[in-house]
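Q: Sequence in, structure out?
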Amino acid sequence: MLILGIDTSGRQGSVALVRAVGVEPGAEAPALQPGTRQMLPLRPQALAGTRQMLPLRPQALAGTRQMLPLRPQALAELSGGQYSELLVSTIARLLEEQGLKRSEIGLIGVASGPGSFTGLRIAIATVKGLAEAFATPVVDVTVLEALAQSLGGGSQKGTRQQTPLRPLALAQSLSGKVIAVLDAQRSEVFFGEYVLGEGIAGYPVRMIREALADFSGFTAVLAAGDASSEIITPDEAIAERLRAVGVEAKLVGRPSAEVYARIAYTKFCAGIRADVATLDANYLRRSDAEIFPVSKSGIAPA
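A: Exactly. Output:
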């Protein structure tokens, strides 16, 4: 199975192709017992962007216990200000470079937010177009959900080149509560609480909640919660603010499109998929247009 991963949730985004080894184009899939899906090892196909080959450390999927060795792959980012111009053409170019057709995509994994309103809308619209045209299943993965399973990776601040990916956490081999935090600007944060090691068969990640809160409200949530929860964030400013009030937060990198593809595949094998007709971004907050409506005269109401 060929899996397309898309992330346009932040200032920088990415596109990835990942293949489940064992189901090659034109080959018959192994026979399975009724009502089950086989978890197949994944190997990266390619990531959109630069052609530079970067070394990778082994990674693994939630729902597996084996660390799967990965071949080197090209890593790069899409500019957030050019998602509408570059996303579709980048997917097409990536497929062409790999000698593949759009109809060969067997699954689409997409970062559904929270994040950039424009970026998320573009990604969801693109995914719906691809899914409806080729009857391709889709699995949406929230950014907070991906962070909760990520031990790092992403790009260095101020650069376009991505650093080598660190291992993706094994949700099944980890246990306990994790709180993922994103900077929502305006002295607010997006946060998600999860329990790793619990959930449905094949996807042992249970979400408690995902929400928006001001910073003081979030620290109150932490004070009232489980002190053993691990707090992770990709935002250095949030980590510093938390440390200033006596809360230790682990600084991690933002997940790449490959991570979203891998998590989507794991969820798909567990029987989880999105309804393409109702698929929407997980904004967690209203847009500025909704918060500050402008009348036909062009003047915002007092």
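The mean pLDDT is 77.
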